[in-house]
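Internal tracking record. Fields below are filled automatically when a chain is submitted to the structure queue. Please do not edit lines marked as system-generated. If the sequence contains nonstandard residues, flag them in the REMARKS field before resubmitting.
Queue: standard
Priority: normal
Entity type: single polypeptide chain
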Amino acid sequence: QVQLVESGGGLAQPGGSLGLSCAASGFTFSISAMSWYRQAPGRERELVASISASGISTNYADSVKGRFTISRDNAKKSVYLQMNSLKPEDTAVYYCNRGYWRPEIDYWGQGTQVTVSS
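SYSTEM-GENERATED OUTPUT FOLLOWS
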């Protein structure tokens, strides 16, 4: 069955960095676009970044453009999110899912909590 396991979250100071990982299984990862989403308390889940199956194309929310970088390793069936210059408003639970513009899998992993605070 499909599994999406996010990791790497934690506490960071404003201006700091964190790197997230998502290990996927249960579908053909190498032909699947992948995305990162986040959900802050009291807010809807939002798309943060996407990457095509080949890794050539990427897309970012305006709020993270220039600060976050999405990447993937098809051999490891993993997608990554490098987050730099973190801001308190980046605080949220971060999830990965298949797809480029919208989530294609109804199942969501447990997510990984990112907290940006001094």
